[in-house]
Design brief:
The protein is mainly β and 400 residues long. The protein has one domain: Tachylectin-2, Chain A, CATH 2.115.10. The protein contains 2 helices and 25 strands. The strands form 7 sheets. It has a 4-stranded antiparallel β-sheet, with no helix packed on it. Strands 5-6-7-8 form a 4-stranded antiparallel β-sheet, covered by helices on one side. 46% of the residues are buried. It comes from Actinoplanes couchii.
Length: 400
């Protein structure tokens, strides 16, 4: 049985001092994407004194007993940089589907990696709630605390007031929360796109596969626009073509502008999408393999200016996450580091040449690092050979 690790909040100032890329030894000039930092949060990490969870979990749990006495800190599907060595990281719907996640509380965790120790501190977080009744249909809980049976939250950006815009897969919906996790307005649907979970509730015809909603959510450097990227193709679209939809945060409506990101193959999926300037995005593309069966885990640079006029975002491979140089043997790994997880769903730009990438460990199901052992939440930093030339407005003001 895996040791249960309780959450302990260390002094934030010390954490911040140790947690940047320099905490892993500092980046230098490289000629290929190179690992500069590694930290890991044990799989069996729980929010102490929370609520039982996992009572509906079935199937192989990699030796982790269910149900859990508390809420797990897991399933990281989106990340937002606070600029002070801490990050707000979003947990997704819980245990993989609507039917088994009614006792998983949707939550944003505040985390801080400490690369000198290889650990991740959990400093707190907020549950997502709807106290003012903005969701017009019946929720799972009468106290209006949101669960994995209500929404499948998969992507997150911060608004200009410290709150959050979150992309959901069950609608798909855009959800706007304040910094305390309280829903500020009704879920915003996407015209013409309906996931099966919403189709069952409303009687509409599903036009999207299950769990294929807003996996990526990017914010323009000004904060005015959001770009919500579907994980799956809409009925009638070319298989493997994903819609990137522009949303105006000032009007609270979609603008009608839409772009197309084409996967390398129709059976692949995206894991995250973030903006680095007004035109370019970083997009994670992956297969469904893990461990020995993992092949495609890639980070692309995508440009909406469509210079070749083929109607698609221009794609350039930035990092092959299965082939990252590791000359300093960081994390105890060999000279080539592989991020061999089934789902990799978090990327954030730390500076013009450094990115951080996190996996979604699908606790307790995924075992990509070691067969039969539940995956930890791993957090890596990678130095790039060349500057991304990002818009400086994408970085939080404090600590930069």
């Amino acid at each position: 049985m895996r040791k249960i690790v309780p959450i302990g909040a260390l002094a934030l100032a010390l954490t911040a001092a140790l947690s940047g890329p320099a905490g892993a030894g500092g980046p230098g000039q490289v000629t290929t994407p190179t690992l500069t930092g590694f930290a890991s949060l044990p799989a069996a990490t729980f929010v102490p004194g929370s609520e039982p969870s996992g009572s509906l979990v079935t199937g192989s749990t990699n030796g982790i007993p269910v149900p859990f006495a508390d809420q797990p800190v897991q399933g990281f599907s989106g990340i937002a940089d606070n600029g002070d060595g801490t990050y707000d990281v979003l947990s997704d719907n819980g245990y993989g589907n609507q039917a088994n996640s009614a006792d998983f509380l949707l939550r944003i965790h505040r985390l801080a990696p400490v690369f000198r120790t290889g650990k991740v501190d959990v400093l707190g977080g907020v549950n997502l709630t709807d106290p003012d009744g903005h969701v017009p249909w019946k929720l799972t809980r009468d106290d209006r605390v949101l669960t994995g049976a209500d929404f499948d939250v998969e992507s997150i950006v911060k608004d200009t007031f410290g709150g959050y815009w979150i992309g959901d897969e069950f609608g798909p919906y855009l959800l706007h929360f304040d910094r305390a996790g309280r829903l500020l307005s009704a879920p915003v649907p996407l015209d013409g796109v309906t996931a099966p979970e919403t189709a069952v509730r409303t009687g509409a015809t599903a036009t999207l596969g299950s769990s294929k909603g807003f996996e990526g959510l990017a914010k323009s450097p000004s904060g005015r626009y959001l770009y919500a990227l579907l994980e799956g193709s809409v009925t009638g679209d070319t298989p493997g073509d994903l819609r990137l939809n522009e949303f105006d945060t000032k009007t609270g409506k979609y603008t009608g502008k839409r772009y197309v990101y084409r996967l390398g193959a129709a059976n692949l999926a995206i894991g995250d999408a973030i903006a680095i300037d007004d035109n370019r995005f970083l997009i994670i593309e992956r297969d469904g393999g893990q461990g020995a069966t993992a092949v495609i885990k890639r980070l692309y640079l995508a440009d909406k200016r469509d210079r070749n006029r083929d109607g698609l975002l221009d794609k350039t491979l930035l990092v092959d996450l299965m082939n990252v140089a590791n000359p300093r043997r960081i994390g105890g790994f060999g000279p080539t580091f592989t991020f061999q997880f089934q789902t990799i769903e978090d990327v954030v730009v730390l500076d013009e040449k450094t990115i951080a990438v996190l996996n979604d460990n699908n606790f307790p199901f995924s075992s990509g690092r070691t067969a039969g052992v539940a995956d930890n939440n791993e957090w890596i930093t990678i130095e790039l050979p060349r500057s991304l030339q990002p818009d400086k407005r994408i970085f939080p003001a404090q600590g930069r």
